[in-house]
Amino acid sequence: SNLGLVFEAVGKADLAESAYRYSIHLQPQNPEALYNLGNICKKQGKLSEAIAHYLRASQVRPDAEIWNNLG
After folding, report:
1. Alpha helices in the chain (DSSP H)
2. Which among 34, 53, 54, 58 counts the fewest CB atoms within 10 Å?
3. What span, in angstroms and rounded, lies between the C-alpha atoms of 41 and 71?
4. What residues contact 67, with CB distance under 8 A and at least 6 apart?
5. Cβ distance 59 to 28 under 8 Å?
6. What pLDDT, in 10s, does the model give residues 10-68?
7. How far is residue 2's CA from residue 59's CA, in Å, rounded to a whole number?
């Protein structure tokens, strides 16, 4: 997930998305990776996919920030 943040910071959204997906592949219950992937999907206009990732993240770790992105 940290690698995804680095890619995101330098404007490489496609590489950030791949890094988050790989992180989730390794740790399916990683709330940070799920949340960050939701953010990337939201920025790319993939809203239904973003919502799905936010919901999965909120199931793993209920968090007000996650719910703010859904509202």
Report:
1. 2-9, 13-26, 31-43, 47-60, 64-70
2. 58
3. 16
4. 58
5. no
6. 999 999 999 999 999 999 999 999 999 999 999 999 999 999 999 999 888 887 576 66
7. 21
